Amino acid sequence: MEDKIKYEMEFPIHVSPSLLYQYISTPSGMSEWYADNVNSRGEFFTFIWEGSEEKAKLLSKKSPERIKFKWLEDAETDYYFELRIQVDEITKDVSLMVTDFAEEDEVDEGKMLWENMISNLKQILGSS
């Protein structure tokens, strides 16, 4: 299997970190922008898109800063995806930092997917 490449993206979002955290860390919040439906049972989350399901394990969670998941299909690897809220100490600007992995020929596609999903999230939050 080809090694995946780690990539990070930053999305400025004009909303309070605590509100943003609700949308990145709860099944109901993630169902509004990340997947069609999200269910959780303990540390396991099921993400549903147009009938297909992907399961992930919650690796870590720190309120109101970050949440980190590992897809179960990547269980034997170091791959994960993380959503981290970053607040600039001086300006108080809020950004959502996304860390993810993709195969070399799929990085651009992965980034576009995140851009679309974060755009949906911004619309829901009323953030430009």
UniProtKB/TrEMBL annotation:
Pfam families: START_2 (PF19569). Residues 1-126 form the START-like domain. This is START-like domain-containing protein.
